[in-house]
Design brief:
Distance between the termini: 66 Å
Largest sheet: 7 strands, mixed
Helix content: 40-55%
Bound molecules: 2-aminohexanedioic acid
Structural class: alpha/beta
Radius of gyration: 25 Å
Number of strands: 18
Strand content: 15-25%
Oligomer: single chain
């Protein structure tokens, strides 16, 4: 989709506009006879605009979904990598064929700008196609292993069983479908709990997968909030959990899994960050300005990769801050369905309130606070004005502030190592950026910084499937990296087969070999 081409863009915008009044619904894939409470879903940029409804999964529905997923899993596993890959590719085709609906829901349900909505769809399709390729690679043939003469050893991968995927609202399609596609590729069946804020796009994704031929029992939707997640993770039939979201929720899931008696589940978690960028006096100011604005304010700062803290070397501090503020003031904040909008709303009033509390508290630690201009229209939605706060250092920021708030700190070149130590000391380890043209500086930061994704002389968001496998360490997650060559295998279990190939294993041969 070439948004720069008006011949492509304008008809697309018109079609998206026509979809605005459509009503959507998310409910469990398997319906029990218990009508649950219906919750309205509203648009983050205008909470008066009702776009659909959600009915949460009941305890009975969770139980029934897992029962069905467990019963069909051996069959799905036996289908083999090639057939599962073909179904995932068919799902990718369905997604592309429903571009308008998907982009419309990204805007209406998640408050994404048009550019972000297109990126979201592309990433979702990339995940499906890449994990299909991985299913072919990993599940085609067993891997032969070395061994003594007269013995054959090989290693095979198989699905672990029923996998639960618990996904975030900030990538309501890409990170909903990515882990689910990996689990499916590996021969698991999946029960998926999307974020409570974005079940409609998840329901559409699951429907498109079913339309593509993935059986309903193999991939089931269980909408709901934390209680539904708790019901799923505490069920001993769940063999593994993939979670993307806050570090606090990952801890809660860990506790829930640890409290289960009778089975041990694997947890794959991708969580928060306190991501910094370091800029020294050899950096190119225009490039830095562009990359800082993108890293901190694209997607309204609602990416776990987003830049939260910018360290600028003192010799260039004033000049750089002036340039960044200039670009910051030019950001267009507003309705994400307008093409010109750079920064849309945050997801809901809770997120808005948490960010406002942080900005208010920062008045005590921050030196200066700049905010974008307000507009009466913002009162209809959950908007947070983009904000820049000058601080002394990262040490004050223990918790992730998930929104368009950037902190800026000054450092002396002789303190470079200390800056890296301070960043590491927080315990997160997701992304870090460096702008410098000094090779020694790059080598120093690269060797010391403990992050999963380190970006040099560019922005620090937008990891691309396959080229930049994404994920952190420490408080930022367990690995493996999404979109990388080790991801799908982590959703599988390894089985080793050893065959005695001498004389068909008769007793005499057996005794002789002992
Ligand atoms: C997230 O926000 O949960 O690198 C992940 C990026 C995206 C991944 C963000 N590909 O910004």
């Amino acid at each position: 989709i070439d948004l720069a081409d008006p011949l492509v863009r304008d008809p697309l915008l018109k079609r998206l506009h026509n979809l605005r009044d459509r009503q959507w619904e998310a409910s469990p894939t398997f319906k029990a006879e218990i009508p649950g409470e219906i919750a309205p879903i509203t648009a983050p940029f205008d909470h008066g605009l009702r776009i659909g409804t959600r009915r949460d999964a009941s305890a009975e529905e969770v139980d029934m979904a897992i029962t069905k997923a467990e019963a069909i899993q051996p069959g799905w596993n036996a289908l083999g990598g090639e057939k599962r890959a073909a179904l995932l590719e068919a799902a990718a085709d369905e997604f592309e064929a429903h571009t308008d609906e998907i982009l419309s829901l990204c805007q209406l349900e998640a408050g994404k700008t048009i550019v972000d909505s297109v990126l979201e769809l592309r990433e979702a399709v990339d995940f499906l196609r890449y994990y299909a390729t991985e299913a072919r690679r990993l599940f085609a043939e067993p891997t032969p292993l070395p061994g003594p003469t007269g013995e054959e050893n090989y290693l095979k991968l198989a699905g672990r069983g029923v996998f639960a995927t618990i996904s975030p609202w900030n990538f309501p399609l890409a990170i909903f479908i990515g882990p689910a596609a990996a689990a499916l590729a590996a021969g698991n069946t999946v029960v998926a709990k999307p974020a409570e804020q974005t079940p409609l796009i998840a329901a559409l994704a699951v429907k498109l997968c079913h339309d593509a031929g993935i059986p309903e029992e193999v991939f089931q939707l269980l909408p709901g909030a934390g209680e539904v997640g708790q019901l799923i993770t505490s069920d001993t039939r769940i063999a593994g959990v993939s979670f993307t979201g806050s570090t606090q929720t990952a801890h809660a899931i860990n506790r829930s899994l640890a409290a289960r008696d009778g089975s041990i589940a694997t947890l794959i978690a991708e969580t928060g960050g306190q991501n910094a960028m370091i800029v020294d006096s050899t950096a190119l100011p225009e490039q830095v300005t562009r990359d800082v604005i993108a890293s901190a304010f694209q997607s309204a700062g609602q990416r776990c990769s987003a830049q939260r803290v910018l360290y600028i070397q003192e010799d260039v501090y004033d000049e750089m801050v002036t340039m960044i503020r200039g670009a910051f003031q030019a950001l267009v904040v507003g309705d994400p369905t307008e093409f010109a909008t750079d920064v849309g709303p945050v997801i809901d009033h809770d997120a808005q309130a948490a960010l406002e509390r942080h900005v208010a508290r920062s008045a005590t630690i921050g030196r200066t606070i700049w905010r974008a201009d307000d507009d009466p229209a913002f009162a209809r939605g959950s908007f947070v004005l983009p904000t820049i706060i000058e601080i002394e250092g990262i040490g004050h920021l223990q918790r992730e502030n998930f929104g368009p708030v950037l902190h800026i700190a000054k450092f002396k070149n002789k303190d470079l190592e200390k800056v890296v130590d301070d960043i590491n000391a927080l315990g997160y380890g997701l992304t870090c950026g460096l702008h410098s043209r000094v090779e020694a500086t790059r080598r120093l930061v690269e060797s010391k910084i403990k992050v999963g994704n380190f970006y040099v002389n560019r922005n620090q968001i937008g990891a691309v499937v396959e080229s930049q496998p994404f994920g952190g360490e420490g408080l930022s997650g367990t690995g493996p990296k999404a979109g990388g060559p080790h991801y799908v295998a982590r959703f599988a279990t390894e089985r080793v087969v050893t065959v005695d190939t001498t004389a068909a294993g008769g007793n005499a041969t057996l005794l002789a070999s002992l």
